[in-house]
Design goal:
There is one protein chain. The chain is α/β, with parallel strands linked by helices. It has 2 domains: 115 residues, Rossmann fold (3-Layer(aba) Sandwich), CATH 3.40.50.2300; 86 residues, Winged helix-like DNA-binding domain superfamily/Winged helix DNA-binding domain (Arc Repressor Mutant, subunit A), CATH 1.10.10.10. Helices cover 40% and strands 20% of the residues. The protein is built from 8 helices and 11 strands. The strands form 3 sheets. A 5-stranded parallel sheet has the order 2-1-3-4-5, with helices on both faces. Helix 6 packs across helix 8. The longest helix has 16 residues. It is elongated, with a radius of gyration of 19 Å. It binds calcium ion (CA). The site of calcium ion (CA) has 5 residues, from loops.
């Protein structure tokens, strides 16, 4: 596994890279956001939020525009707003500093397991098709501009069209089990997904239970 470590503080980056190497993990170290954005693709990104040039949150957002590589934010204590924002824009988890390499590796493995869990195979529903190989959803043949989380949410609902998927299962599948404030985030993603689908009726809300995907009745 090849990890991109974005950290400007040498006193953190160096021992961390050493520690990771003991787990057989190769790190590519950079100290600025600009270097992070131009670095070759990695299997994993460890991202300090306090960088000297670009805000770590912006780095995260820009990485997410082109890639669904797992991202763990390395955060200072008191960065709660940034942590929540980072998770909402697609980071997979965060590690508050200081942390042990062992704990970090455990979290990386947990995220890796989730990433490898095969997505349910689905052909879609009516005019909506889900392509698991390219991780794209199309509506009437047009690719929907979805973020990785929106795609995962839609693919999960489309895996069993018409069935109600409960909120807990969605949260556990698409977000982190320890993700604070994720209920609101789920509702936010449902709202943006409905907007992109062009009709709110695509995603039916069973209040207090969960959501289901249905083809909106024609003519309305
Ligand atoms: Ca820093």
């Amino acid at each position: 596994m090849r990890v991109l470590l974005v950290e400007d503080d040498e006193s953190i980056a160096e021992p961390l890279a050493d520690g990771l190497s003991r787990y057989g993990i190769t790190t590519h170290r950079v100290g600025t956001g600009a270097q992070a954005l131009s670095a070759p693709p990695a299997d994993f990104v460890l991202l300090d939020l306090g960088l000297p040039d670009i805000d770590g949150i912006d780095v995260c957002r820009r990485l997410r525009e082109t890639s669904d590589v797992p991202i763990i934010m390395l955060t200072a204590r008191g960065d709660e707003t940034d942590r929540v924002l980072g998770l909402e824009i697609g980071a997979d988890d965060y590690m508050p500093k200081p942390f042990s390499t062992r704990e970090l590796v455990a979290r990386m493995r947990a995220i890796g397991r989730r990433a490898r869990t095969p997505d349910p195979v689905s052909s879609g529903l009516g005019p909506l098709t889900i392509d698991e190989r390219t991780r794209q959803a199309r509506l009437h043949g047009e690719v929907l501009p979805l973020t990785p989380k929106e795609y995962q949410l839609l693919a999960l609902l489309a895996a069993d069209p018409g069935a109600v998927v409960d909120r807990r299962r969605i949260l556990e599948t698409v977000w982190q089990p320890n993700f604070f404030g994720r209920g609101k985030t789920l509702d936010f993603h449902v709202a943006t997904l409905r907007r992109k689908l062009g009709d709110p009726r695509w995603i039916e809300n069973r209040r207090g239970v969960g959501f289901r995907l249905v083809v909106p009745a024609a003519g309305a």
